[in-house]
Design brief:
The chain has 195 residues and is α+β, with helices and mostly antiparallel strands. Helix content is 18%, strand content 32%. It contains five helices and ten strands; from the N terminus they run αββββαββββαβαβα. Strands 1, 2, 3, 4, 5, 6, 7, 8, 9 and 10 form a ten-stranded mixed beta sheet that branches. A hairpin with a 2-residue loop joins β2 and β3. It is globular and about 50 Å long.
Length: 195
C-alpha cells in the first residue's frame, strides 16, 4: 500500500533529530521559511532551533565579547541565528558530537545540543566541536501541541538534520532541507485544499 495514510502511519512518533520545515502560507510570520532542527520531542513536548534566519549584525564574536569570553575575535564570520520566539535572550548551540561538555544532550547520530558557557569558552580557545550553529531563542511546543499542528497545513517533516547544513548559508537552509526530502520549493502552494 502506498497511500498517503500509509506514509502517516510510517512516520515516527517523535521528531527529534529531524528537520521541521514551515510550509508557505502557514500564517505565522515568526516561522516564514523556518527550518527547525528538532532537538527534543517526547510525550512532554518539543524543542527545536530555527537555523534559517541570521540576526542581522550579530556574530559569535559579539556574543563572546558581551559575555567577557576572551578569544572570540576570530569568530566575526560566524552568524548568530534567531532560534525561535521563546526566550530570545537565551543561547543554544546545535553541534557535532565530537565535543561533549557540561549538559550536552544527544540529538541524533551527528548532532548534540548545548546551552552552557563551557562550549563557548572551548570554541574561543580553539577547541570545542568541529561543526556548530549558534542561536538565540528556541521554538517550543507543549504536550501534544506539535502533534496537533502536524494534522493541519503548516509543517513538513523533513529528513534527519544533515551534517552538511553548517556549510550552507542560513538563508538557503530552508530550501536545501526541502530538497534533501525531494521537494522543489518552487512547486509548493501557499494554501491547502480539500479533496
Amino acid at each position: 500500500m502506498t497511500s498517503a495514510s500509509s506514509s502517516a502511519i510510517d512516520s515516527p512518533l517523535y521528531y527529534a533529530g529531524r528537520m521541521l520545515l514551515a510550509l508557505p502560507g502557514m500564517g505565522d510570520e515568526n516561522f516564514d521559511r523556518a527550518a527547525i532542527a528538532m532537538c527534543v520531542h517526547d510525550e512532554h513536548g518539543a524543542l527545536g532551533l530555527d537555523i534559517a534566519h541570521a540576526i542581522p549584525g550579530l556574530t559569535l564574536a559579539d556574543v563572546m565579547d558581551g559575555l567577557s569570553i576572551e578569544g572570540g575575535e576570530g569568530l566575526l564570520h560566524v552568524p548568530v541565528l534567531r532560534g525561535g520566539p521563546v526566550e530570545p535572550q537565551r543561547g543554544f548551540l546545535i553541534h557535532s558530537r565530537d565535543w561533549g561538555g557540561q549538559d550536552a544532550m544527544v540529538v541524533n547520530a551527528h548532532w548534540a545540543l548545548s546551552g552552557s558557557l563551557d562550549i563557548l569558552k572551548a570554541i574561543a580557545q580553539g577547541g570545542g566541536p568541529r561543526d556548530y550553529i549558534v542561536t538565540l531563542g528556541y521554538t517550543g511546543w507543549g504536550e501534544g501541541q506539535l502533534e496537533d499542528e502536524m494534522t493541519r497545513h503548516g509543517w513538513f517533516l523533513g529528513e534527519d538534520i544533515a551534517p552538511g547544513l553548517v556549510g550552507v548559508d542560513a538563508s538557503r537552509r530552508w530550501e536545501k532541507s526541502f530538497a534533501a526530502s525531494g521537494v522543489d520549493v518552487r512547486l509548493l502552494a501557499g494554501q491547502s485544499g480539500l479533496a
